[in-house]
């Protein structure tokens, strides 16, 4: 049990460190806050919340993995290397892919609600 709690502690400190050091992570969290506020204001359905939470979780998880890859690459070498570039660019691509899909999910959910409001 103590070991499990210690592991949670390490994982939590990894998340805190990424939030402190990565401006992009703070942008993702701010976007998630705005989406949550909009969802509450529009009174979206339970399934819509589930999809939005999944999308937000996907983006934050991808950003955490991207941060881990960046740190591991920098630990290995700070010299320019094609494999270092490929690793970092691929990890950044994962964040971009997650963010684009999340934006599409957000549009599919919010556009009909907003449309109903203005018509
Ligand atoms: N060792 C390296 N060798 C070759 N190219 C690199 C190397 N390190 C970084 N790069 C290139 O420079 C880009 C920027 O790298 P950097 O480490 O500054 O990350 P970043 O995407 O700016 O993220 P952050 O600002 O969070 O550090 C990478 O995506 C990659 O294309």
Automatic annotation (TrEMBL):
Residues that coordinate or bind substrate: 3, 63
Keywords: ATP-binding, Cell membrane, Kinase, Lipid biosynthesis, Lipid metabolism, Magnesium, Membrane, Metal-binding, Nucleotide-binding, Phospholipid biosynthesis, Phospholipid metabolism, Transferase, Transmembrane, Transmembrane helix
GO molecular function: ATP binding; kinase activity; metal ion binding
GO biological process, one term: phospholipid biosynthetic process
Membrane topology listed for this record: Multi-pass membrane protein
Cofactor details (free text): Mn(2+), Zn(2+), Cd(2+) and Co(2+) support activity to lesser extents.
Similarity field: Belongs to the bacterial diacylglycerol kinase family.
Protein name: Diacylglycerol kinase family protein
């Amino acid at each position: 049990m103590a070991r499990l709690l210690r592991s949670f502690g390490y994982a939590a400190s990894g998340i805190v460190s990424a939030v402190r050091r990565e401006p992009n992570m703070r942008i993702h969290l701010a976007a998630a806050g705005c989406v949550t506020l909009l969802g509450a204001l529009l009174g979206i359905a339970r399934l819509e919340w589930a999809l939005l939470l999944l999308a937000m979780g996907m983006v934050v998880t991808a950003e955490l993995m991207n941060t881990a890859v960046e740190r591991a690459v920098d630990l290995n070498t700070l010299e320019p290397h094609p494999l270092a570039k490929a690793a970092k660019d691929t990890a950044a691509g994962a964040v971009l892919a997650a963010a684009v899909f999340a934006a599409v999910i957000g549009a599919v959910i919010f556009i009909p609600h907003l449309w109903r409001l203005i018509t």
